[in-house]
Automatic annotation (TrEMBL):
Pfam families for this protein: APH
SUPFAM superfamilies (UniProt xref): Protein kinase-like (PK-like)
InterPro entries the record matches: Aminoglycoside_PTrfase, Kinase-like_dom_sf, Pseudomonas-type_ThrB
Organism encoding this protein: Sinomonas humi
Name of this protein: Aminoglycoside phosphotransferase domain-containing protein
PANTHER family: AMINOGLYCOSIDE PHOSPHOTRANSFERASE DOMAIN-CONTAINING PROTEIN, AMINOGLYCOSIDE PHOSPHOTRANSFERASE DOMAIN-CONTAINING PROTEIN-RELATED
Superkingdom, taxonomy of origin: Bacteria
A GO MF term: amino acid kinase activity
Annotated Aminoglycoside phosphotransferase domain residues: 34-278
Amino acid sequence: MITAGTNQIDLLVQQAIAEFGCPPDSRVAFVKHRENHVFRVANDDGEWALKLHRRGYRSDREIESEAAACELIGSAGVRVPHPLRTLGGSYVASVGSGEGMHQATMQVWVPNASPIGDSAAILAGGPRPADETLFDLGRTMALMHRCAEQAQTPPDYERPAWDAEGLVGAAPLWGRASELPALDVRTRSLVLELEQRLRLELGALRKSARTYGPIHGDVTMENVLRDEDGLVVIDFDDMGDGWYVFDVATACFFFTGHPEAERMIERTMEGYAVERVLTPEDARAWHPLLLARALTYLGWSVARPTEEATAFHIAEVLPRVAAAGRRYLDTGRTGWPDLPVG
């Protein structure tokens, strides 16, 4: 989080755009603040998204790895925002001074594009992406995964892991769901049991080149945009190593509350199958990864009690996780639609 005042943030922005070679009279507009501060920068040469990163969340090497991966994915036919380099050749600029140093990155702005859906509304059974969009979503994920499977990881690559420990271990990447203050005694006991079982089951999954590698890590409807030319995947902040089917589980988790969930997942996987084949091994990992994904939203909420998303996670995600979790502990299945493969 950036705790500086408005004037200090303005100075950070001016330092950042100078590092990336933008003139000082570039037009800057604040866009949003969640994990990072995001600004829109425009001048006669074009438009860019400037991100002032949450301090301490990622190392410079991790951010460099993210940018390099975006370049690689873009070369494989997936539309992603093109990252810019600083005048010194890095993808990351250090701005500020002393203890007030921050990382800054810039990428090409994606104009006239909007998210393919609203995850919260979809979970509640509201408007959902069209079948054509879901097909394109599946195909896009498959292209990313095929690229990751075939590419050589650079020697200086460094990203976190969405493995058993990163999802439900002692110190998960997004926090422990069982530490959410809103849990009552019975539900906390259930979540603890789920974490323990999923940790064992996910720990037993293979990490072969076909099943495991660099993934986006947060393929929600808000992180996939559509413009007149098709889909654009954005926000690779949580990119890391994980099972490829975890990206699919992330994209499909919010479908599980929709009355057309089965159809939506089927259409997504029809698109995926055009570019890449999933197997019964992936299908066996589906239900535990769906549950683990759901638990990450509760874990994320632990450190963010006042966030609007936390209220949504407690009111809407938690009851669904509790019901699916009890069923999973009893039967090994969540009650959510299966992953169609083959």
